[in-house]
Amino acid sequence: MLHSNQYNYLQGLNKQQRIAVETLDGPVLVLSGAGTGKTRVLTTRIAHLLVTGKSKPWNIMAVTFTNKAAREMKDRVGRIIGPSSEQVLMGTFHSLGARMLRQHCELIGLKSNFTIIDVEDQVKLLKQIISAKDVDDKRWPAKYFLNIISSWKDKGLTPSKITDNHIFEHSNGLIKDIYIEYQQRLLKSNCVDFGDLLLHPLELLQMNSDVLLKWQSKITHILIDEYQDTNTAQYLWIRLLCSKHNNICCVGDDDQSIYGWRGAEVKNILNFSNDFENSKVIRLEQNYRSTNKILDVANCLIKNNTNRLGKDLWTENNIDQDVEIFNSYDSSDEARKIGEIIEDKIRDKVHLTEIAVLVRTFSLLRAIEERFISIGLPYRVIGTKFYDRQEIRDAIAYVRVLCNPLDDLAFERIINTPRRGIGPTTIKKLSEHGRQNDMQLFHSAENIVNSEIFNNRTVEKIIQFINQIKKWKLLKNEKKPMDILDQVLEESSYYEMWKNEKSEEAETRISNLKELLEVISEFDTLEGFLQHVSLMTDNDVGNELGEVTLMTLHAAKGSEYQVVFLPGWEDGLFPSFRSLEQGGEDGLEEERRLAYVGITRAKKELFFSYASNRRINGIWMSSLPSRFLKELPKDITNKIDADDYSAYSLYDENVSYDYTQKFKNQGYGPGWKRMSELQINNVIDKNLPQLQKNSENDFQINKFVKGERVFHVKFGMGNVININDDKLDIKFDNAGHKKIQSNFVKKQ
Predict the structure, then answer these.
(1) pLDDT tens digits, one per residue of 427-469
(2) What CA–CA distance (Å, rounded) separates 647 from 624?
């Protein structure tokens, strides 16, 4: 053990950091803003507990959210206090839960050598259960049930705690029975899933007073990192463990709570002072990462949230760079401008590893990736590159088969995607039949009708799929490539497969497929599209200069870069319609916190951008600048073209239905005036016939009825209360009563 004269590890801490480290008794919330040194505070506090003799290593539990963070914490503490750090209980919630569970597994009905199954095995088990219960797996696939069960486990709900309120609208009430059998099957197999590593330890402590007392006596001090990301089960577990000594230190930032969609409860950190009596809140506000200008932008934005504890980031870093906002005509123009700025940074000797592009959704990266490839700019995607994503490869496989039925690899990929009851055994027999008769899989499947290899039901499924392909092939001479692919994905039930999952990931996949439709709309033939894809995926760019990082805002948390680009800041994209529809004001505040996270990743330079137009399903749509841009400091927002924000008025007042004016104002928005006269004429010539058709049919398409659910780009979801010609009286969920022209809302 080190002696008190070796407190040199406290040197270099600022005043607030030192208070956080030295306040060792009772409940403490360290409200740590972005870039304020929270990890240093957390690890130094552990060391100080040991050096001062306040605690023994085996009486401390330090909890993180990732294995990487746990390793970093252990390394830092070890550098201060030496080998004794190994005796501190450090790890993720799940790893510490597993440790507790192995010690008391018999009380749950498990053996100590239980297996932790992965998602693939979870899905497989649920498929067996729903198949036995004769559940329609197309309407309610296994992943649908898995998402619900996982969310219940995050809330600490065992099957016995599921009430009628929980199962409302979930598969006609079948979900509870499936959850019960799922848990029973896991126990019989001596298995647990990831959620059980939280649920079972909580159940142990709640149902066994002797176990609770044992752990309460053992753990005298608890430290938790990223407290704003805890879910209900984690919160309840921690409350039970610390209730005897009440020595708990939680480090987190309510302004960076961005994982509500996966179960995190921001109220855990907001209610800390109410949950723990005589608690102290210590704010870390001195930032060591960003410039004053960037911090001013972040502070100005996040102050618009009402559900926060409040703090203001500041820095002694006086090296200020300008924060810029630029408008682009469309996504391609936006990508071009980002590429040009990065090339300027290269000339200024900025290393590419210090540059990041952060987006709200993966689909926004497609245009940027293509631009970077075309100019030879090295990049890496945190996650999966656009053309490597499962849903994109599936869709492209359909196109490949339509262009070349002899493409066995593509045919094998799609024959049972979505599932059609044509499994691996059937495909293997088709391959063998093809080899014996010297024919490819497609022709083997065609020929199978004359074979006795399969039963009638299997033959019927194969022939049905072959006939679909033949039907789609005929469309090549009748429809545009985009319309063909859209029809294929619809009639094959591929869209439906992802929609039925009802998850954040599935929504992202659908968004990516819509982005793919935008790509294919630029080509006259399916073959031309496939050639483009092959050039995009077969590109090998050298990385002598490093690589620009592309990722989503959610993935960016915890990282930092010298130069950060934030594209796609348009209403509907960011904040996303889905978040507003499902979460209302809470959803808006989480979106704003996500914006705050993006801003605070930047160390020196920050670029916001928005496009005046986005192409949705091949049709140009006017885009409005994100409402978040209006919340930035005035010296930043005054760079936004006044005409761009005036577009908001289009959604509040009557607008002339003259289709040419509508096309200029809504179809191309403020970016229109940046086009040359020649460009304007070309655009009108290309799009006016479709616009005329849309204009003539608008009122027929948009026939509304009272009580109908509708969506508005600014006001969100609402119900039609009254109809007066083309004017609708709508009661919006969050904006109250509004009178809106019918062509400005969409049916849901």
Answers:
(1) 888 888 878 888 888 888 887 766 667 777 888 888 889 899 9
(2) 7
Catalytic residue among 16, 38, 426, 604: 38
3-state secondary structure of 559: coil
| pLDDT tens for each residue of 260-269 | 888 899 999 9
Closest CA to 34 of 561, 558, 707, 578: 558
pLDDT tens digits along 715-730: 678 889 888 777 788 8
Check 16, 44, 256, 600 and give the catalytic one.
Answer: 256
Residue 633 inside a domain? The answer is yes
The pTM of this model reads 0.77
Has 435 been annotated as catalytic?
no
- Three-state DSSP class for 235? helix
Catalytic residue among 226, 275, 589, 591: 226
Q: Can you give the pLDDT at residue 523?
A: 87
To the query of whether residue 393 is one of the catalytic residues in this protein, the response is no
Let me know whether 426 and 520 are in one domain. yes
Q: Which long-range contacts (CB under 8 A, 24 or more apart) does 464-470 make?
A: 464/420, 465/415, 465/420, 465/422, 466/442, 468/492, 469/401, 469/402, 469/405, 469/442
Q: Could you tell me the two tokens for 19?
A: 């208070």
Q: Is 306 helix (H, G, I), strand (E, B) or coil?
A: coil
Residue owning tokens 């209730």: 243
Cβ proximity of 468 and 418 under 8 Å: no
Query: Is 229 domain-assigned?
Result: yes
Total count of domains within the chain: 5
Q: Is 315 a catalytic residue?
A: no
Measuring CA to CA, which residue among 326, 333, 325 is closest to residue 679? 333
pLDDT value for 713: 61
Name the active-site residue from 154, 203, 225, 605: 225
Largest CA distance in the chain: 90
Query: Where in the sequence is the domain holding 89, given as residue range(s)?
Result: 4-103+199-286
Q: Which of 18, 22, 23, 39 is catalytic?
A: 39
- Exactly one of 40, 176, 601, 662 is catalytic; which is it? 601
Alpha helices in 232-323 (DSSP H): 232-242, 267-270, 272-275, 292-302
Task: Give the domain-ending residue among 653, 672, 688.
Answer: 653
The structure tokens listed for 54 are 């306040």
Instruction: Strands of 365-424 (E only): list them.
Output: 379-381
Please indicate whether residue 38 is annotated as part of the active site.
yes
Could you tell me the CATH number of the domain that includes residue 177?
Answer: 1.10.10.160
Mean pLDDT, contiguous 10-residue spans, the chain (748 residues): 61 93 95 93 92 91 87 84 84 92 93 88 91 83 90 93 71 82 93 94 95 94 95 95 94 93 90 93 95 95 95 87 89 94 94 96 91 91 88 93 88 89 84 82 78 78 89 89 92 90 83 88 87 69 74 93 96 88 90 97 96 73 88 82 46 33 37 41 46 41 76 76 82 74 74
pLDDT value, residue 691: 42
What pLDDT shows up at residue 561?
96
Strand order in the sheet with 548-552: 323-328, 602-611, 561-566, 355-359, 548-552, 379-381
Sheet hosting strand 745-747, strand order edge to edge: 736-741, 727-732, 716-724, 709-712, 745-747
127 part of the active site: no
CA distance 686 to 663: 12
CATH number, domain with residue 252: 3.40.50.300
Cβ distance 28 to 223 under 8 Å? Answer: no
Say if CB 250 and CB 29 are below 8 A apart. yes
587 within some domain: yes
226 within domain boundaries: yes
Instruction: Please confirm, yes or no, whether 741 is among the known catalytic residues.
Output: no
Q: Are 411 and 439 within 8 A, CB to CB?
A: no
Q: How far is Cα 543 from Cα 353, in angstroms, rounded to an integer?
A: 10
155 and 78 inside one domain: no
